[in-house]
């Protein structure tokens, strides 16, 4: 072998190697079933996984090269491991103690040497790779050499400190949360940009009228306002069936008033106009004053008759950097449905660490490993699928995934040291 290639050897020798147990299926190959004395050229490149052989027909003393097959990388590794004796490795790079940032490519160079088992010929090659450090844990990382050799090198892997040059105030939390759940931090930051806006506002809030109608205030709610922890944060008024609702017992503990929350923290702020002055702000009144700006009618087709209930601004809303609905946050561990104890403060969803952890849990739950998409976020591949699932289903969720992927693919939030 020279420059990672085994040169011309006698085909009978090759047959003895393969039939000897290193590749039993080769025994049925036509080139190995007769006393053939032609030549074979074998090429194996351990650094790329390429391997193949060319059989020389040897007609009339001439040499006609006939390509027979390209071997898969697994077979190449098998031949290296089984057909070589005394294989050793010397690692040139990285060097012991060298520091890298998680997500950074680690340049790898190892020099392998040994002898061919049957022929006793010296063989050697240099392996050059760029190793992806993204899956490795932060701290000391031991990188072993390959092909059964025993060399290794220990490097120090550190967290990156920034994701791009903009909106860096939550980068440290995003990076550590992404690492915890095996999510590329640039994907997570792109999601936060989409959800909380260009200012990365941790106090982002959005009231969802269709959630209110379907889950809590409609004639057949899927959850209702009388179960823990929702009843602690219900607002006094009436549901669509005309039933009276008493105020939840933890409303008074909230540091931000409901009117301030809905009127200031939401997208542009909601106009809270009680048109008939009866002290009961219904969804119909809210809709009439805000739909032109909030565009609820574009995705929430409620009839006029189904808007006559008190808007439940607290339990029917999404919160924080990840903009998770209150009930969805409970599904991912924010609180329990067990009655008998106080509910966790609903405004804890504004805490960046809390919101990001819950968002990461939800995002990774929709992850389906597909064909690797490399350094891009592509349609119908792993992270695009997860982002679509994060938002829901259908065309709107697909558009959402497209939008987040566009942010990610722009490179604006790439890892920096």
The CA-CA distance between the termini, in Å, is: 41 Å
- What is the tally of beta strands? 17
The level of helicity is 25-40%
- Portion of residues in beta strands equals 15-25%
Provide the succession of SSEs: EHEEEHEEEEEEEHHEHEEHHEEHHHHE
Number of domains: 3
Structure description:
With 417 residues, this protein is of the alpha+beta class. It has three domains: 150 residues, no CATH class; 95 residues, no CATH class; 146 residues, no CATH class. Helix content is 29%, strand content 21%. It has eleven helices and 17 strands. The strands form six sheets. Strands 1-2-3-4 form a four-stranded antiparallel sheet. The longest helix has 16 residues. The chain is elongated. The chain starts with 8 loop residues before the first strand and ends with a strand. The N terminus is likely disordered.
